[in-house]
User: What shape does this take?
Amino acid sequence: MIFHQIATERGCQSYFLACEKTCMAVVIDPEDSQLERYIGLAAQDGVRIHYVLDTHTHADHFSGAIEMSRALDVPVVMHRDSTAPFVDIRVDDGEKINVGELSLNIMHTPGHTADSICVQVEDKLFTGDTLLIGGCGRTDLPTGDPEQQYDSLFNKLLLLPPDTKVYPAHIYMNRTHTTIGEEIEKNPRLQLKERGEFVEAMRRVTLRDPDHLTEALRTNLSGGKTVAQLINEAAHNVPFMSLAEVNRRLATDDPGITLLDVREREAFRAGHIPGAMVIPRGQLELSVNEQLSDPTQRIVVYCQMGKISTLATATLRDMGFTRAVALDGGVEQWSEAGYPLVEGDQ
Assistant: This one.
């Protein structure tokens, strides 16, 4: 078996497994920021990714499953209780997915979420957020249940051989994995062997909500796009003009550009690039016909930080303003560079 463990700075773990004989691969718990890395590993090892699998609906980061599925035309595997509409293969307890000669044995382990599964492959167990190193997944997020978590741990996972290697979806220490035996011996949560004691302890756990909780659940449940994905896609489809180039042009008699500020009018009045006009992003589609009458004009779009203006530029290009470009930066960077700003209306 070819095996790679991919970690991010946030402690998220994903796993790349491949059958050497058949050159078939699967990625478990892919994260959206690592997609190029998974594809690079497949090329490096001379294998092809055939499946992507999420152990549960993630609430603390953005899954890369849907994007990988679209890019590589491969199925997404999740538990049958997942409500995500983009899942192609829905699995349940006791079933398996064959990746060449590798068998991915599915264990339904609800508790952290209703759709949580663990995946056993040879001597390795990929536990998602059900069992962590020195802990277990929280049960206070949507579809979490401490009673089910107890059963998944004590009546299922902890019955596996003690030398089973455990690879969770999150590791917050300088470790790569643990074992069932080590967790039985040292994991504080697993010392609470009485059901009532364990359940009460889990109900008392108070943790802050994960960053981007609402957005992560929305995108991971629906297959919709994150704000970052929308901005990245727009950035791939528009050209940019540097701050220095815009400043140089403004110093000439004929700049050859129309500066468009897409911030709110109050921010525009507080300080904008000389000569700019303003159409707030929320009014852009409804106002361009009145305020931008020439679709052939060269428009440089800017905002405060350069993100909203990238989206606005893509919109303008879609509407036929084929010479619209985004400023490579925003008013903040413009000011930091020492370039002039003026106050008031245009």
DSSP finds twelve helices and 19 strands in the chain. Residues 35-45 form the longest helix (11 residues). The chain has two domains: 2-224, 228-336.
